[in-house]
Structures are given as C-alpha cells and as structure tokens.
Design a protein that fits this description.
By secondary structure, the protein is an alpha/beta fold. It has 10 helices and 9 strands. The protein has 2 domains: 2-34, no CATH class; 48-288, Thiolase/Chalcone synthase (Peroxisomal Thiolase, Chain A, domain 1), CATH 3.40.47.
C-alpha cells in the first residue's frame, strides 16, 4: 500500500508504474530512503524468516568498519493468500493455535507485522542524547546445506550460529540470561532448537529461560527475527521475560525452561536471539546491557 501510494502517477500506454515499482524487493527501502533523505548503504535481505537478523548483522559490520555512524534496520511482512496455501500444502499450519515446544504442537500460525530499530555507534548515540536500550554485541551465521524446508536433524547449523555469536561477542555461555527462541511450533524445528541449545549451553541449558513470542503473535516470516530482536532489547531494558503461551503438555524431547504461559521478572543482562529459517539459513544475534 505504501509503495502504491508513493508511486509516480504515470500510466502511459496503459502501463501501471505502481505495479512495476512494487516488483523489486528493494522498492520499500528505496522509497523510505527517498522520503527520509537516507543516503547511506541500502540493502534488502531475503533470507526467509532470518532476514531481519541478517540485516542487523550486516549493519553491525558497517558500524564496526567505521563506514557508517547509524543505520535503520529491521524487517516487515505482508502475507498474500498464496503464502497460506504454500504452508498448508507443507502441512506446517496449526489448525487452532501455535504451541512451541509443547508435545501436542501441530505447526505454526501465520502473522504479519514489522520490527525496526536504530543501530548506531555509542559516540553518535551520545551526541544526540539517544535512549539506549541495549548493545548489539555480535552475531553468528551458518547455512545447514541440508534441506529447503527441514532443519538439520542434529541442529548443526544452529549450533555453529550460536557458538560463533558468542565468540564474536566475547561472551561465555555462562553469562547468557535469556534465549529468545526461533520456536515455530513445528515438530522438527522445536526439537532441533532444543538439541542445539543443549549442545552449546551444556549443563546450563536447563537453567536458562527460553521462550517463543511466536506463540503470541504468530510467525511473521520476514519480520519475525526483527520483531524478536526488538523484544530481546526490551527484555534487557525492562528486566522482563515474555512467556511461551499455549504450553500445556511437556515434551520429553523438549525439556528446557520455556517460561510457560506467564512472563516473569528477572535481571536480564544478555540475550540470545535465534532465527533458523527455511533453507537452513541460521542467524543468531546477541544483545547485552550497556
């Protein structure tokens, strides 16, 4: 809708410029740049539901390299009817509700939305007296190279993504206070993510709160990891952990602390945000209190 409202009013020879301009995925960032006068690097990530985390990681690299002082990053998704059909054909949709990590989970619920954040150097933020929610410490990326829709059964890519994020951030697994899980509510994904967390966090795994906000807002696809990054920062700022709702029946294969049904207050200094997308596109970001 934004694209069509802002497209040039030119239908020469019966050709609708609005339709033409909505075709390239970069159209939305191009028009936002035009509206707000942004002149820095412009990129659109199409890594399925890890797109937001991927964009955030790319922006962090630019900041570290001194190429920019500030970046607007995030993700959004407007779901066409065809996407519902695709997920229905994959038998990935829950008939009623999304129940991440529950024994009776039957799939995901599709949602729509957007999550946007401003990433900037500390110096730039200080000069403009910005309110700082958290510090982005690092990221990890790894492709499974396994299957278009199914995760690696042993979580190989997810394990490396989390491990590399911890390494880049120079943070020990012992210092992570909360994991914002990918947690789609599908049988394979939730089991794999649980295995991967156990592999990385070892004896601490069962003591770290792990929750999925997809249980509340659905799977927002390209917006998912961006929204979850915003939630990760708010968890740090507010010392609050969101719950995994609709959790009713424990699964012996998913045996971590999933913050069932009620959020909780806790001192949160470091959060891992996982996004394990179709195609095995695994991206983990780490946020900490400044």
């Amino acid at each position: 809708e934004y694209l069509l409202r802002n497209a040039p009013d030119d239908k020469a020879n019966g050709f609708d410029m609005g339709v033409a301009l909505t075709y390239p995925p970069s159209s939305i960032t191009t028009l936002l740049s035009e509206d707000f006068g942004f002149e820095g690097p412009n990129m659109v990530s199409l890594n399925a539901c890890s797109s937001g985390n991927h964009a955030i990681a790319w922006a962090l690299d630019l900041l570290y390299e001194g190429k920019v002082d500030v970046m607007l990053v995030g993700g959004g998704e407007l779901i066409p009817q065809t996407e519902f059909t695709h997920f229905h054909n994959l038998k990935a949709l829950a008939p009623e509700k999304c129940q991440p990590f529950d024994k009776e989970r039957k799939g995901l619920v599709i949602g729509e939305g957007a999550g946007i954040m401003v990433l900037e150097t500390l110096d730039f933020a200080s000069k403009r007296n910005a309110e700082i929610y958290a510090e982005l410490k690092g990221y990890g990326m790894r492709c499974d190279g396994h299957h278009m829709t199914a995760p690696h059964p042993e979580g190989a890519g997810a394990i490396v993504a989390m491990s590399n994020a911890l390494s880049m951030a120079n943070i020990s697994y012992e210092n992570v206070d909360y994991i914002n899980a990918h947690g789609t509510g599908t049988s394979l994904n939730d089991r794999m993510e649980t295995m991967a967390i156990k592999s990385v966090f070892k004896e601490r795994a069962k003591g770290i709160p792990v929750s999925s906000i997809k249980s509340m807002i659905g799977h927002t696809m390209g917006a998912a990891s961006a929204i979850e990054s915003v939630v990760s920062c708010l968890a740090i700022k507010n010392n609050a952990i969101p719950p995994t709702i609709h959790y009713e029946t424990p699964d012996p294969e998913c045996d971590l602390d999933y913050v069932p049904n009620e959020g909780r207050e806790a001192k949160i200094n470091c959060v891992i945000n996982n996004s394990f997308a179709f195609g095995g596109n695994n991206v983990t970001n780490i946020f900490s209190r400044l």
